[in-house]
Amino acid sequence: MSEVVELIVPNSAEYHLRNPALNLTGDERERVVRFSGTYECEHAVFWTDNPRVMVLPVGWNEQWYADIHRELGLAPAPVVSPAMRTGLLVEDLLKDGDAQGELRGHLSGYDTVRLLIVGPTPETYLLAAMLRGWGLTVELDHLPEDDYWASLYLDSKVSALDLARQLPDIRVAQGMVVGNWVELRGALRSMTAQHGKVIARTLFGVAGDGSAVVSDTPGSVEEFLDNAARDSFFAFPILIQEFVAHADGIGCPAADILIGEDGVEDVVLCTLTVEHGYSFRSVDVGEGALPAVWGERLTRTAHELGAAAHKLGYRGWMCCDCVAGADDQLYVTEINARRSGSLHAGGLLRMWGAEKELTLSAHFMMPVADGTTYEEHIRPVFQRLWKSGVRAYPTSVRALPWPDPIIAVIAAAPTAAEAHKIVADIRQGIHELAGPPSAEHPLAAESADPVELPVASGA
């Protein structure tokens, strides 16, 4: 028998929905299940080049999957796709005996399974127990079940505030936490009068959902309150912080942090592109993603936060999001106790041994025209790039049949500017074959910009 196989389970949706304090309903829940539970799962194909078995939701494109593995020089990993009952990947696997039987067959030649996930949930520990019941040794890439509380705690926006009180070099924006509508209205009026602009965030959000910028413009507070009352992301308590003025041209620094038994093992630097001050769109990854001085500040912050999380019993990947302030200070905005959306880029850098040589630019929601297909319109664009030796890939294509279709792409180059140019050329090439997205597409404005550069985010 072979020694170790990795079982890759990108459980994004159930991770985002796991917290008992968050009760998403209606459109908000459906959006998380569809986007995080299917579309984002495909990025996990790029996590590692080790022997592995993938668990992916039904609907992945076989031609795309074969192309990606061929261009990366990898044998295609076996895929198990459980019947979609809930849209939550691990829960659906635990309810599908046929999928379990298929998975057991793929793992039968191995002694040890290393379980790689987005982040822990009660269901992932049940999955590990099932694998042990099959006689396999299971290695977790995350914290043990007894320390699960630390994942829940660190993932809350409040954890960054707590750690800033304990760690003198960690800086956060001024703010307050409110627990009801009366406090919320009063705090917003008080803080916008003091700061002009603030950002209101729930303790558990997803890619900008659960956040909003509020200003001292007449009617802004009441408009926010009206919208929040209809949005199930906005559950109390709510954190209100000063919207920090930003350093020009830096974007929003972030770091992926790997914590092992002995402490911080790896730090991957990133800078995020957002819209409206909080809504995540793209990320540049690698040492070239940030100017050196900001990279050094972020690295120090990542090691401090990682050491503090280690003391709490946390293990595995986590990420910290920050703002580069116009006052030349780095502000921590939150900790996400999971694999971030950029870790497929980090996986490619490690796969190529190019952490210091390349910067990757990952764009998560590139709008395309209705009727665009992978085989007819997207594959030819990438085939030309691959033939020329360009390292660029479509990282998710399953949203092509959706209303307002999108794809995700990633490109690698020696500099971020060169990677942005490759992404712009990909966009243009797809539009030449399939036409541009309709003017009614909610992301149509993005297709008009030849290169997307990082912009500032709220603290």
Explain what you see.
Residues 162-369 form the ATP-grasp domain. Residues 434-459 are annotated as: Disordered. This is ATP-grasp domain-containing protein. By secondary structure, the protein is α+β, with helices and mostly antiparallel strands. It folds into three domains: 2-141, no CATH class; 174-242, Dna Ligase, domain 1 (2-Layer Sandwich), CATH 3.30.1490; 252-448, D-amino Acid Aminotransferase, Chain A, domain 1 (2-Layer Sandwich), CATH 3.30.470.20. The chain has helices at 12-16, 26-39, 62-72, 89-94, 97-107, 122-133, 148-155, 157-166, 181-195, 220-229, 292-311, 343-352, 374-387, 416-434, and strands at residues 2-9, 52-55, 79-80, 110-117, 137-140, 175-178, 197-206, 209-215, 238-242, 252-260, 263-275, 279-285, 316-324, 330-336, 359-367, 392-396, 406-413. Helix 13 (374-387) runs antiparallel to helix 14. The protein is globular. It starts with a strand and ends in a 25-residue tail after the last helix.
Descriptive labels:
single chain; alpha+beta; Dna Ligase, domain 1; 3 domains; 5-stranded parallel beta sheet; 17 strands; 36% helix; ATP-grasp domain-containing protein
